[in-house]
Structure formats: C-alpha cells, structure tokens
C-alpha cells in the first residue's frame, strides 16, 4: 500500500501492471489508482485463463494478481475528484481514484478474492449486482454481513460460476453512496473463448448527479431533477468516442444506475440485445432495435457488425439528458418581442442579451460568462458546426483500415463526395396554393392530385 499513489505516478504503464508487484502473496494485493479520466487501452491478461478484455469508456480495468488458483483484486472505497469534462470537476466517492470504479474482469470458472478497503468517512459494503454467489458474499449491509467500518478491509471470495455482464455498488447508505458515484462494472468472460466472440467490447455505466453550477458536490437528496446526465461520469463533449474498424463485430454493454430509464439510441445501424445482467439472450429470442431502453438497475448489451463507416451519434433519446447543467424553470420566449424590455435591462446591465425568442440554438454558439466549474448546457463542435449537445451523448466512429486494438479518436469522418446533405441553390418550387388562392395546408388532404404525382421527390410537398 505504500506505493499506492506512486504506482502509476512513477510511470509504470498500466499494461505492465498485471506483471504485478513483488508484494508477498500472503499480504494485501496492491491497489493501483488511476489519476486520469481518459479511456485506458484494454489490458490483456498475463496470468490465468485467456480472455478478450473489454474497453471501459473513460475508464480502466483493475489489475489482478494470481495467488495460487485465486484471482485477487483490491478495491479501495474513497473520496475522488472526477473530471466530468474540461472545466467541470466533481467531488465524488468512488474506487481507486475514480468514479465509476475500475472494471473488474475475470473468467467463468475463476475463484476470485476481492479485498475492499474503506477510506470513506462512513461504513460501506459492496453488492455484486446480478452475480450468482453464496448469500453471505452478496454485500447487503445488515442482512448478509456487518458493514465495513472506515479504515477496515473486508474480503469477498466466490467462484465466478456464470459468464456475463454485472455491476458492483454499495448496499450500505446506498442512496447517498450511489448519488456520490460509487459503482463499477464487473465482466465475467465465457470460459470458451469461441462463445460469442467480438472484436471490440465496450462498457459504460449511466449515472446522474445534481451539481449546482459553481459547486463541486452532488446534492445527494435529489430524486428526479438532475442536471448532469453522464456516461461513466463524463459529459459531452468529453465522453470518449467508441472507435471500431469497418467489419468489426462490436458489443456495447450499458448499465443504468440512475433514477430513471434511458432509451439509448445509436444512429446508422440496427442491432440486437445479446445479453442482460440476467445472462446471454438466446439467438431465437432476439429482435432488431435502433434504441434500447435501459431500465433502472439493469444492464443491456447489444451487438452489431460495423459495416457502415461514419460518425454515428450514440445518445440517450430523452432530449433533456443530452444537455449539460440547465435550469428547468425557464419560461418559453419563442415568438416574444423582448426589444423594449431589453433596452431597459441594458440600461442597467449593458451585457444583457435577450435570448430564446427564436428557440435556444443561439445558446450553443455564444460564449456567455459562466460560473467556475460548469460547462455550457449545449456545446461541442463538429466539422460542420455546433452540435448543441451535452450529457449522455457520444459518437460511434467506424473507419476503414483500423488496426485491432487501436482505440485512438480517428478525428472527423471524411464523407465520400456527394454523400452529405446539401443546400438547394437553384430555383425554389412554387409555393403550394389551393385553387382558391388560400394556403394549401388545410386543403391538402382534399386535393387528391397532390398525392398522385410520383415524380415529385420526398422533399416536395407542393403540387
Ligand atoms: Cu437518458
């Protein structure tokens, strides 16, 4: 434990971390910390059975050591500082330096021993969500074990009997501890490496926080009105993209530990749910989707063949969940004439800008003074301009010619010529009018001719 802080600070590459330390097999395993919120490359196991590691978006996997036939991990529950986006840091509780905690990976049939040290100011436990294990390892404070007091270390030990995708989180002062960001992913790889293999396997958790602009600490008593909707405790534009090579088989595993459901929508593809936290879905029980609702306290994994290159948006379809910190009590000003009142306000506050009379897109492009430690509600720039997004939004980037294991952001997609929506600059079609000269909108249904002109493209609504 002496070298906990120095472990990575000393320049030890994480990939080398499984080669592991000289710590006595009799003592506590080291508990490495991650200082960065960047996506770490997957760690291939150097000991124990082989598996294809997952990639945790803006996260990492916890190194382990083998102690005889037992795979040992060490989680430290502790206060952490999590950079949610450049310019926005949250004071959370998490594990080993980050929230969410590191992903734990093992293989079906492994015996795992997980040391949990508590450096929080109050007691905690860890519940292994979805896993089949002895009742006394289930981590429910008071029900299946005494809680872990501050300063103490408890040991959880069980056989990983079932492969799949699971989560871990406290089951002690659970409302506060989860509102503070205590959670992580737990992946048990199939013993048979040929069982549903994929080329790229991404994992992330959805979590939400209520952090007042200018402050750092989540309001843990909030039940519904959150302002930070996060993918692995990151918000757009600083959620890492998911990067895949053309033709790769891709799996995306999404867990939801917020207080509401999230319909996760990915553009450009249809796909199928192949796994839930209950287990693998049999092929004959799957159906195609383009949005997958992730219920509260649940995990869904979907798969597809990445055959369509491009920059494909991947986001929660609740439009308020792709916004950053926003007030929910702002009136709608669309269509209002603010010019008179703007003149009066400018007399006392020269910087005042009347907003919202034409919608809110203006907000994404103007830089207004913000309090410290927050980022704009709508932000992010792409090759064609402002994205006007935030929160639970990222991009699936599919590219030709990527090396296996290359997860670097490949930059903007180069669209083949003639494949981007373009502006019509020629003559506009004549405005649609009814024979009596009135506007056509209401009369359209009564003019069958309007529906009998197959030569008109989909973009034309007129006669
Ligand atoms: Cu959502």
Automatic annotation (TrEMBL):
State the residue spans of region: Disordered: 431-463
Q: Which residues form the Plastocyanin-like domain?
A: 81-192, 216-330
Highest taxon in the source lineage? Bacteria
Query: What keywords does the record list, in alphabetical order?
Result: Metal-binding, Oxidoreductase
- Where does this protein have compositionally biased stretches of type Basic and acidic residues? 453-463
Span of the secretion signal? none
Question: One short Pfam family name for this protein?
Answer: Cu-oxidase_3
Q: Molecular function (GO) terms listed?
A: copper ion binding; oxidoreductase activity
Keyword Ligase present in the record's keywords: the answer is no
Q: Please report the name of this protein according to its UniProt entry.
A: Putative copper-containing oxidase protein
């Amino acid at each position: 434990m002496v070298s906990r802080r120095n472990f990575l600070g000393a320049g030890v590459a994480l990939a080398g971390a499984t080669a592991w330390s000289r710590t006595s097999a009799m003592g506590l395993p080291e508990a490495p910390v991650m200082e960065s919120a960047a996506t770490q490359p997957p760690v291939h196991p150097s000991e124990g059975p082989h598996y294809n590691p997952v990639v945790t978006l803006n996260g990492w996997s916890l190194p382990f050591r083998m102690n005889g036939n037992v795979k040992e991990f060490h989680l430290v529950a502790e206060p952490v500082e999590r950079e949610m986006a450049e310019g926005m840091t949250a004071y959370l509780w998490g594990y080993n330096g980050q929230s969410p905690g590191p992903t734990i990976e093992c293989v079906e049939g492994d015996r795992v021993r997980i040391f949990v040290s508590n450096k929080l100011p109050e007691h905690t436990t860890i519940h292994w969500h979805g896993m089949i294990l002895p009742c006394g390892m289930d981590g429910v404070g008071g029900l299946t074990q005494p809680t872990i007091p501050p300063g103490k270390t408890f040991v959880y030990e069980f056989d990983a009997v079932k492969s799949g995708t699971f989560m871990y989180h406290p089951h002690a002062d659970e409302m506060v501890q989860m509102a503070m960001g205590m959670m992580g992913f737990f992946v048990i790889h199939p013993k048979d490496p040929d069982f549903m293999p994929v080329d790229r396997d991404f994992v992330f958790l959805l979590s939400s926080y209520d952090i007042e602009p200018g402050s750092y600490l989540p309001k843990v008593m909030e039940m519904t009105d959150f302002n930070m909707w996060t993918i692995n405790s990151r918000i757009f534009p600083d959620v890492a993209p998911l990067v895949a090579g053309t033709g790769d088989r891709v799996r995306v595993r999404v867990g939801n530990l917020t207080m509401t459901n999230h319909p996760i929508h990915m553009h450009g593809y249809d796909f199928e749910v192949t796994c839930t936290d209950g287990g693998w879905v049999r092929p004959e029980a799957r159906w195609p989707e383009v949005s997958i609702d992730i219920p509260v306290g649940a995990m869904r994994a979907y798969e597809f063949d990445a055959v369509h290159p491009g920059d494909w948006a991947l986001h929660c379809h609740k439009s308020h969940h792709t916004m950053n910190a926003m007030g929910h009590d702002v009136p709608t000003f669309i269509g209002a004439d603010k010019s008179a009142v703007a003149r009066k306000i400018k007399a006392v506050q020269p910087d005042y800008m009347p907003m919202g009379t034409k919608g809110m897109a203006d907000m994404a492009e103007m830089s207004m003074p913000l309090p410290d430690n927050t980022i704009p509600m709508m932000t992010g720039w792409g090759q064609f301009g402002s994205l006007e997004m935030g929160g639970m939004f990222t991009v699936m980037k599919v590219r030709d010619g990527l090396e296996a294991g290359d997860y670097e952001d490949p930059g903007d997609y180069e669209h083949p010529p003639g494949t981007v929506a373009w502006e019509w600059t020629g003559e506009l079609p004549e405005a649609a009018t009814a024979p009596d000269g009135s506007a056509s909108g209401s009369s359209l249904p009564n003019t069958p001719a309007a529906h009998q002109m197959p030569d008109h493209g989909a973009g034309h609504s007129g006669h």
